[in-house]
Write a structure and sequence with these properties.
The chain is α+β, with helices and mostly antiparallel strands and about 140 residues long. It contains 6 helices and 5 strands.
């Protein structure tokens, strides 16, 4: 199966400024999500990977929906609608909000940490393809 790209969530340059690539492959609909930070050694990127299910509510029954909704500034009812929407990017953004509120380690227990340069080398083409393919 060839990959199908749905687009980018977060910043248009997710590796450098945070965000994710949403695409479908043989494993289902996945997000590769980037969060940048710096330490004494320079800019680094934490990378989380997670699957976008048809119902975020069923996938993550432990979520504090009221807390997430308040955190991102929407009402809980709207957030729950997005969590089961037909729109893949809307559901991906719900996962992004959950990760921001509860911690991305709850979406991916095996996150990777790379330098900014390593992340660009490894994932730059994926981001470029997402931009090209989602504009078709």
């Amino acid at each position: 199966m060839s990959e199908k790209f749905y687009g980018i969530i977060g910043d248009c340059n997710p590796i450098e400024h945070g965000g994710g690539v949403v695409y479908e492959n043989e494993h289902g609909i996945e997000v590769v999500y980037f969060r940048g930070w710096s330490d004494d050694y320079g800019p680094r990127v934490s990378i989380a990977r997670f699957t976008v299910e048809k119902s975020v509510i069923e996938d993550l029954p432990w979520v504090d929906w009221k807390g997430v909704a308040s955190f991102i500034g929407v009402n809980e009812e709207a957030l729950l609608e997005y969590a089961v929407a037909n729109n893949v990017l809307a559901r991906a953004q719900v996962y992004e909000s959950i990760g921001s509120y509860h911690g991305f380690q709850n979406l991916d227990h095996e996150q990777r940490e790379l330098t900014l340069e390593e992340a660009e080398n490894e994932y730059g083409e994926l981001v470029d393809r997402a931009h090209r393919e989602s504009q078709r």
